[in-house]
Amino acid sequence: MGRAAAKRAGQPSVRFHELRHFYASALIQAGESVKTVQAALGHASAVETLETYAGLWPDSEARTRAAVDDLGLRSQAKSGPEVV
Considering the domain boundaries, does residue 82 fall inside one? Predict the structure, then answer.
């Protein structure tokens, strides 16, 4: 069934397993939680999902930088220390 569907889609060399990885990657890139990806893939536990895909979620340091950048403080910051 998987091969026939891939052939109809014009992608005869794509395997079902590769589509699962693509799907998981897309969910993670969209910001979905570990539990959401776990449920979507039918994994028995979040640990199983993390063991496979942990490297695709942004680390906390990257999320922290992005959160601060999103505040827009850089454009309002003065170029040097404020003298009082």
Answer: no
Work out the number of other CB atoms within 10 angstroms of the CB of residue 53: 19
Mapped onto helix, strand or coil, the DSSP state of residue 7 is helix
**CA-to-CA distance for 57 and 34, rounded, in angstroms?**
9
Model pLDDT for residues 23-37, shown as the tens digit of each residue? 999 999 999 999 999
Q: Provide the domain limits for residue 40.
A: 2-76
- 31: its two tokens: 């910001």
> Which pTM value belongs to this model?
0.63
Alpha-carbon span 31 to 56, nearest angstrom: 10
Domain count across the chain: 1
Residue whose pair of structure tokens reads 């028995």 in the numeric block: 44
Secondary structure of 14-32 in HEC code, one letter for each residue: CCHHHHHHHHHHHHHHCCC
